[in-house]
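Quick one:
INPUT:
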């Protein structure tokens, strides 16, 4: 968002929107990428500069407003992989993060792939997703896993939400209400926080649906959710009904643990009664 600002100073002073880009991009926001493109070109012309690589940090919902910027990025500043963070596919958790819908990612990927073909480059997007964010349900994670498999994504490193100080997400996690909506006694919008270790592991397991270690947990969850139709041998199923030998053993071992924001601790065993 380099040098992007409101088109009208008076409108900016009176504006009460919490974000210029959520729930949609404000019509008063100047989304021109010309200044950023010129900055890239000036940086490339500096003596001794051979290559400037951009690996992440692209605001893709704004980038789709400027196909010229995407072409400039792909031709000169991508080194094989570009990491972006759609975070989720479902509106529930996305609304709590003030993130755009997955349609913005699809549009950016289309323009990115087109620019790579025109530049005769073999470049790839690496989308980042998060598990257990406040406002996320088991069904949301299941739908994300289905989207990942449909698009042939197999996440290796995944992020599970942890509350960080001074963030809206942390406020939701601890208070159980949505500060993006009016907060009033009895009528505040409730936000479900995923605090149990079992559910947190389940959400992470949906992100790594391809890992055989997670299949026992996912089978059990899918059956409880009434989605046993996602278990089977074909490519249309999320996970198989069979289990490779020597895998899935950790699921039974981890059932006796609880989650805290400071770490993981085993539930204490009850003390035997005195004779």
């Amino acid at each position: 968002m380099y040098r992007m600002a409101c088109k009208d100073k008076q409108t900016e002073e009176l504006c009460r929107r919490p974000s210029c880009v959520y729930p949609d991009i404000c019509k008063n926001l100047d989304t021109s990428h010309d200044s950023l493109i010129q900055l890239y070109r000036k940086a490339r012309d500096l003596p001794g500069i051979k290559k400037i690589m951009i690996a992440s940090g692209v605001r893709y919902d704004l980038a789709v407003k400027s196909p010229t910027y995407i072409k400039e990025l792909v031709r000169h500043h991508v080194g094989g992989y570009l990491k972006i963070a759609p975070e989720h596919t479902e509106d529930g958790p996305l609304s709590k993060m003030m993130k755009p819908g997955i349609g913005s990612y699809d549009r950016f990927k289309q323009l990115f792939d087109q620019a790579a073909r025109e530049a005769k480059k073999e470049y790839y997007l690496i989308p980042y997703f998060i598990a257990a964010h406040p406002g996320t349900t088991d069904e949301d994670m299941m739908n994300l896993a289905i989207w990942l498999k449909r698009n042939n994504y197999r996440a290796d490193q995944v992020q599970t939400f942890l509350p960080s100080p001074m963030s809206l997400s942390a406020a939701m996690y601890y208070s159980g209400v949505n500060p993006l909506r009016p907060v009033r006694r009895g009528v505040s919008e409730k936000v479900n926080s995923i605090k149990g270790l079992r559910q947190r592991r389940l959400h992470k397991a949906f992100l790594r649906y391809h890992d055989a270690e997670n299949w026992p947990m996912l089978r059990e969850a899918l059956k409880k959710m009434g989605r046993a139709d996602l278990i089977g041998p074909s490519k249309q199923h999320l996970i198989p009904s069979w289990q490779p030998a020597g895998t899935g053993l950790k699921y039974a071992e981890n059932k006796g643990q609880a989650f805290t924001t400071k770490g993981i601790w085993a539930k204490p065993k009850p003390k035997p009664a005195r004779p």
